[in-house]
Amino acid sequence: MENITINNNLETSFSLPINEKEPPVDGGGSFGDALSGAMGKVSELRNEADQAVHELATGENKDIHQTMIAMEKADVSFKLMMQVRNKIVTAYQEVMRMPV
């Protein structure tokens, strides 16, 4: 029986280092920059999936497995982005309800 390994690609999905011990304290980038970078990566994954589907449909690429993997990467990254957005909206609403 073969050993199955799981490759953790979250680091490449959102261009944020997972193994970094502590975030930089002295102007290492804003939260908005991190979000816009993550959204750009989600868009890039969606474009790659669209290209893979197009290549499969036109017969340029006959590897349906890679096409499905590209589609699932795009889907999972989009769902993660939506959950992050929902958490940010919820946090904003909580802050707005706080008495001053």
Question: If you had to describe this structure to a student in words, what would you say it looks like?
Answer:
This protein is mainly alpha-helical. The chain has a domain at 34-97. The chain has 3 helices and no strands. It starts with 9 loop residues before the first helix and ends with a helix. The model is unreliable at 8-14 (pLDDT under 50).
Proportion of beta-strand residues: under 5%
**Span between N and C termini?**
62 Å
Sheet of most strands:
none
Number of strands: 0
Number of helices: 3
Low-confidence stretches: 8-14
How much helical structure, as a percent, in the residues? Answer: 55-70%
What key phrases describe this protein's structure?
about 100 residues, mainly alpha, 3 helices, about 0% strand
Helices and strands in order:
Layout: H1 10-14, H2 31-58, H3 64-97
